[in-house]
Design goal:
Helix content: 55-70%
Distance between the termini: 26 Å
Order of helices and strands: EEHHHH
Number of helices: 4
Strand order of the largest sheet: 1-2
Structural class: mainly alpha
Strand content: under 5%
């Protein structure tokens, strides 16, 4: 038996599982955009407000690290001094490790 389809009242997406619907609310919509009841449901499902925002921060940091990695790769074809490339590589590695640590701290 599947759950009933749940339509998002803030956009046109639909979800068959409640957990996916709540995750969508947390990721796709700003906290201030959600109604009081939906805000409480999301906070309850994801361990409270602090966990919810920590997860979003970790996700955005990971996206930023990927963007920086892509920018770094783009510089490989440019005539940049070797020392500068090494510095960029070290900084990119540090950023990836920091994001991994944040994700590990946030938990599943």
């Amino acid at each position: 038996m599947g759950e009933t389809v749940r339509a998002c009242r803030y956009c046109d997406r639909s979800f068959e599982e409640e957990r996916r619907y709540l995750r969508h609310l947390a990721r796709a919509h700003e906290r201030g955009e959600l109604g009081r009841v939906d805000r409480r449901r999301v906070e309850s499902a994801f361990g409270g407000l602090q966990t919810w925002w920590t997860d979003l921060l970790a996700e955005r940091l990971a996206e930023s690290a990927l963007a920086r990695g892509a920018a770094y790769v783009a510089t490989l074809d440019s005539p940049v001094p070797r020392r500068s490339l090494l510095t960029q590589a070290v900084l990119a590695a540090v950023l990836v490790v920091a994001v991994a640590a944040l994700l590990a701290a946030a938990g599943p």
